[in-house]
Design brief:
With about 325 residues, the protein is an all-alpha fold. The protein is about 60% helix and about 0% strand. It is built from 13 helices and no strands. The chain is globular.
């Protein structure tokens, strides 16, 4: 039975009035047009963020600052989404190549022998929870996803060789094909469940340090998860300024002060620096620096990023 909803719809004129709680403005038409485009809920997030800055600036923000903040956030999302996608493709390819070559099995992702359902956790409750999720959610979902890809003639005609009558109808999709379609969340979860030796194999395959320990694979889990949730923020047009999300663990080889906060927006940059190839990581910093220099906002006074973010970022050691 549906629970009654006590909230009533709000027309545009009332939405304009409600925005007065957050922002000072005179041009009702401009705000009305913006609300008609962006929606009240999305717009109000930026208004509420600006209210948290009243003590720093001494007064409630005006419409000019509001629209500049929104525009900056849009450009920031576009930039970071680009590098999240680069990290996603890079790590997907690394898992596909490293493990298929190591095992000699192009369909390894659908074979339970290559996973550790407990994730090697010592706590009994956590171990049991991991095993339960692996058996009832993760592996079942992975199998279903592969089957859906092969069956969907309309969406994926390019996979016809793996359907009935095709020359490879008895084969599962090879990992390099399947991973092209799987969501990043699936890949992040898959890496977290892989056998320990294979988790290390992936890192040895794409990063120069070699001989990675279990500790680094645990840190990688948090970096990948940070990139995944940042990617989701960007893909769904969610507000990045003032964001907090999953915990990022620092690399022990970095200096102790390299990650002042492990849940804020800068911690997502740290994760990207760790996962991306060096060339892309360097370019991200250059493009972000350029974007910041173009905005009229004082993003440091607003604590959107630390004032020394560039110095901290440059000090992050490559994996």
């Amino acid at each position: 039975m549906r629970v009654p909803n006590t909230e009533l719809p709000i027309d545009l004129e009332n939405q304009v009035v409600l925005m007065k709680k957050y922002v000072n403005f005179r041009q009702r038409k401009k705000m009305r047009d913006f609300l008609g485009y962006a929606g009240y809920f999305r717009a109000s997030r930026y208004g509420k963020f600006l209210l948290t800055q009243v003590n720093a600036f001494g007064s409630k923000a005006d419409a000019k600052v509001f629209f500049e903040l929104y525009d900056f956030d849009v450009q920031l999302r576009l930039l970071l989404f680009k590098y999240c996608k680069k990290a996603e493709v890079y790590f997907k390819s690394a898992i596909a190549n490293a493990i298929s070559l190591k095992t000699g099995d192009a369909g390894f992702y659908l074979d339970k022998q290559y996973y550790t359902p407990t994730k090697s956790e010592k706590d009994k409750k956590t171990r049991n929870r991991n095993v339960s999720f692996f058996n009832t959610k993760f592996f079942v979902g992975l199998t279903n996803d592969e089957e859906k890809l092969r069956r969907d003639v309309v969406k994926h005609p390019e996979l016809k060789e793996y359907r009935r009558g095709g020359s490879r109808q008895n084969n599962v999709l090879p990992v390099w094909a399947a991973f092209s379609y799987f969501e990043m969340g699936t890949i992040v979860m898959l890496y977290s469940y892989l056998r320990g030796d294979l988790r290390k194999e992936v890192l040895d395959y794409i990063y120069p340090r070699n001989n990675y320990k279990k500790e680094v694979t645990k840190q990688m889990d948090t970096w990948l998860d940070a990139i995944r949730n940042l990617r989701n923020y960007c893909a769904h047009h969610s507000m990045l300024v003032g964001m907090t999300s999953s915990v990022v663990l620092p690399d022990n080889k970095d200096s102790a002060d390299i990650l002042p906060n492990n849940t804020n927006l800068y911690s997502r940059l740290y994760a990207l620096k760790k996962v991306l190839p060096q060339k892309d990581a360097d370019m991200l910093a250059k493009e972000l620096d350029k974007l910041i220099s173009k905005t009229k906002l004082d993003i440091y006074k607003m604590n959107i990023l630390p004032a020394n973010w560039k110095e901290l970022y440059d000090k992050v050691l490559s994996l």
